[in-house]
Specification:
Shape: globular
Subcellular location: Nucleus, Nucleolus
Number of domains: 2
Radius of gyration: 26 Å
Oligomer: single chain
Protein name: PAK1 interacting protein 1
Strand content: 35-45%
CATH topology of the largest domain: Methylamine Dehydrogenase, Chain H
GO cellular component, one term: nucleolus
Largest sheet: 5 strands, antiparallel
Pfam families: WD40
CATH superfamily of the largest domain: YVTN repeat-like/Quinoprotein amine dehydrogenase
Main location: nucleus
CATH class of the largest domain: Mainly Beta
């Protein structure tokens, strides 16, 4: 269900917000008709800093606010306040971005949608009956959401309709991750299971029992490995064997992980330090103090050949760091910082990206460069399996032929009896 974020009534056929109707325009306010109730996040001017392929730091907080800070890399990476929006009626718990939209999840059980091209509220998704715990885009066509009601929903981002609702876990869904191919997804929940999902058929493919509840799962950029986080421990799995190939343990509980490359993993926890680990050797290659309080979320991307790590902390600061992959032992250098003066909970970076801008490969599953025509995610609630249909038709042919032969033989025998009686 997609509704207007203000919750008021609207006529049928109004574009984009509530349904895909006839696409008729909103009547002009001068006629006393309906106005478009979608609120703008900010009134844009001609000199808006977030145009022409720029970027926007997007952060959610306990205070129900969604922050937006425009950053222009060519001007010393200076963050400029772009908008503050009262997004939900409860604290924000998750945020995700693709090439056009920013979506936020909250303890108010709704998913709010924002069109960043037009800078307007686009509506809200109402399906879950619990706190939204995780959101992840696959290209520009699909969104996966998980919540404390145990459901994983697959959304069509063109019409904003729920294509599939899966009862994924007996408890809460705490985290999910989509394979770069789009054919598989992983999820963990409070039922002490790690589940693999076949997104082509929309069903469970494998269930692994865990000794404890995991709260983070993440695919590597290549999809050849994935990590599962339980408290202060990271288990590294290989896809081929579906078994643990190594483990990383930290002193405090882990709050966020991010693949910088296929073998380089950034880990943040309930302290002020970010650590970079080699997933193959499980060795810490670098650690640096990023904040004065615990770190809540990490994001990363590549911009103009520069590897950037973005961090958000409970102290209210969002910081951007430049990482030199050739000198990984050196601490990243601080590019810029901004104080939101709020208790941050989640973080993302929306890139109005030209062709040369690349998001970090960890976000390959949410990259806009995926060819949507080749995306294997579910496109309809009703599954159509061409292989099964071909098998059924072949069996049908084999059944028809003997019947015809049998009837022909019976007719011949009947004719022979008639001739003999004569």
């Amino acid at each position: 269900r997609l509704r207007n974020s203000r919750g008021g009534p609207r006529p049928r056929g109004c574009p984009g917000v509530l349904n895909s109707g006839s696409g008729s325009a909103w009547p002009a306010s001068a006629t006393g008709g309906w106005k478009d109730p979608r609120r703008r996040l900010r009134a844009w001017g001609k000199e808006d800093p977030c145009r022409a392929g720029q970027m926007e730091l997007v952060g959610g907080c306990y205070e129900q606010i969604l922050f937006g800070f425009a950053v222009r890399p060519g001007q010393n990476w200076t963050p400029i306040p772009d908008f503050t929006h009262h997004a939900h009626t409860a604290s924000l718990s998750a945020v995700a971005v693709n090439n056009r939209y920013v979506v936020t999840g909250s303890r108010d059980e709704t998913i709010q949608i924002y069109d960043m091209k037009k800078k307007i509220e686009h509506g809200a998704l109402l399906h879950h009956n619990g706190t939204i715990t995780c959101l992840e885009f696959y290209g520009n066509a699909h969104l996966l959401s998980g919540a404390e009601d145990g459901l994983i929903c697959i959304w069509d981002t063109k019409r904003w309709e729920c294509l599939k609702s899966i009862k994924a876990h007996k408890g809460h869904v705490t985290s999910l991750s989509i394979h770069p191919s789009g054919k598989l997804a992983l999820s963990v929940g409070t039922d002490k299971t790690l589940r693999t999902w076949n997104l082509v058929e929309g069903r469970s493919a494998f269930i692994k029992n865990l000794k404890q509840n995991a709260h983070i799962v993440k695919w590597s950029p290549s999809g050849e490995k994935y990590v599962v986080v339980v408290n202060n421990k990271v288990d590294v799995y290989k896809l081929e064997t579906a078994s643990v190939s190594g483990a990383i343990t930290t002193e405090k509980r882990i709050s966020s992980v991010r693949f910088i490359t296929d073998s380089l993993l950034a880990i943040a926890g309930d302290d002020e330090v970010i650590r970079l680990y080699d997933c193959d050797s499980q060795k810490c290659l670098c650690e640096f103090k990023a904040h004065e309080n615990r770190i809540k979320d990490i994001y990363s991307f590549e911009k103009e050949g520069l590897q950037v790590i973005v961090t958000a902390s409970s102290d209210g600061y969002i910081k951007l760091w430049s990482l030199d992959l050739d000198k990984i032992q050196d601490s990243p250098s601080l590019l810029c910082e901004v104080n939101t003066k709020a208790r941050l909970t989640c973080l993302a970076v929306w890139l109005d990206r030209p062709s040369e801008t690349k998001e970090n490969p960890d976000n390959a599953t949410t990259s806009s460069y995926v060819n949507e025509d080749e995306q294997p995610l579910i496109t309809r609630k009703k599954k159509v399996c061409w292989t099964d249909n071909r098998d059924k038709s072949a069996k049908g042919d084999r059944q028809v032929t003997p019947k015809k032969r049998k009837s022909e033989g019976a007719q011949q025998r009947k004719k022979m009896k008639l001739q003999s009686s004569k």
